[in-house]
Amino acid sequence: MSVAPARPVAVLGGRFAAELPEMAVPWRGEQAPDARLVVLDEDLAAELGLDAGWLRSPDGLQLLTGTAVPAGATPVAQAYAGHQFGGFSPRLGDGRALLLGELTDAHGHVRDLHLKGSGRTPFARGGDGLAALGPMLREHLVSRAVHALGIPTTRSLAVVATGRTVRREELLPGAVLARVASSHLRVGSFQYARATGDPDLLRRLTDHAISRHHPGAAAAENRALALFEAVVAAQASLVARWMLVGFVHGVMNTDNTTISGETIDYGPCAFLDAYDPATVYSSIDHGGRYAYGNQPAAAQWNLARLAEALLPLIHDDEERAVELAVASLGGFRDRYQAAWSAGARAKLGLPADTDPALAAALAEELLDVLQASRADLTSSFRALADAARGDTGPLHRHVLDVDALDDWVGRWRALEPDPDAMDRVNPLYTPRNHLVEEALTAATDGDLAPFEQLLDVVRAPFDERPGLERYAAPAPPDFGAYRTFCGT
Predict the structure, then answer these.
(1) Whose C-alpha in 6, 101, 343, 415 is 20 to 30 A from the C-alpha of 44?
(2) pTM of the model
């Protein structure tokens, strides 16, 4: 397929701001005293039709920090509400972010160009509106890895160091992240519209979301219910994919739950080391609300909040609206289980016609064995392909109860798993937490080499490459308990 010539300057549309002005506050980014490009995804720039060389120029850096935009563009801070760790805030919004506008990419898809860390907005709620370099590089790295794993996600175009100092627990170098998404509509967007009490705003937001993400709902007799069901399906699929690779989002608030079904807001995120459903990496999740194993239930809870927001459009009679919404929400568990079972079957290398219940039961039994040994999830599943080829040694190295493992392997092998197919879906390389911390610490101190190396590794997660053995190895025993921070 031919790609349109790169544009030196982005042509930024303002459809969100034009159609939903009540949810858009025109704003500009704060001046960056010493803007310096730290990392740029040139492949993504090409997809967007943007000239990478221009983005590296002083004018390009002004775009990437939100301090100067093309004529006619209207950067805005978006308004939304949200449940944060279960507590409702009717007015959150982009406290340190800007939607610069919409681009049409080389495939004809409309994409948001959005900044994080560009300065205080009217939604800042006492915050400084800034971001530190380390957390922005984390989002760039982990979103790159999630994209390479085939999971829907927002993507980072660039990270620009601002020359500012950001005060957190210590003084840190500041940065702005430029990210790209199908849109930044969230469950919290609908909660905000509902909270205003303006039925016309809620209807226009629903129409905007249908047009942007789920056009099949436009022809439905009940458009709002059809939109809700489409979001339920998208989120069920998304969270199943997270679970299959051991991704822990860390902060699944309703304002971080997208209508498109993309992963958004890589704050206290991480990939599992030892398999344990109770794993919590976020330093602020004291009760384990968003533990790895709780993610499906958290997503369903968030979708219930979307249903509440849409009730006036689902049916004029509230009781009937609730009945319809509850019935549609009930489909989440089946959709999630179907997506997870299909993914588990593929990870075990089983034929496509394998009974889904059998595949799920085998996968769950293996996970129990891994949990009992606190085995590394990524390494253990990758070693299954060796076991399918007849060499159980690599798998034995991860599991203490060899008898239980060998019993499972015997029953699994009888189904004739395909090891080559397994290597195509079980990653060898993920952003392992000890390597992420090593890379971010070095980058914050001015040495980008470890970060750039890790970034290159996770771009091709399934392909074994000589010399990268340390990137495939589990965390060293002395790494200890891991905690991540949201960076605000």
Answers:
(1) 343
(2) 0.95
Cβ atoms of 432 and 271 within 8 Å: the answer is yes
**Is the CB of residue 487 less than 8 Å from the CB of residue 168?**
yes
One-letter amino acid of 353? D
Q: pLDDT tens digit string along 425-471?
A: 999 999 999 999 999 999 999 999 999 999 999 999 999 999 999 99
What are 73-76's contacts with CB under 8 Å, separation 24+?
73/10, 73/12, 73/14, 73/100, 73/101, 74/14, 74/17, 74/24, 74/26, 74/101, 75/26, 75/27, 75/28, 75/29, 75/99, 75/100, 75/101, 76/14, 76/16, 76/17, 76/24, 76/25, 76/26, 76/27
Active site residue 207: no
Confirm if 48 and 3 have CB atoms less than 8 A apart.
no
CA 420/CA 434 separation, integer angstroms: 29
Task: Out of 41, 94, 112, 255, pick the active-site residue.
Answer: 255
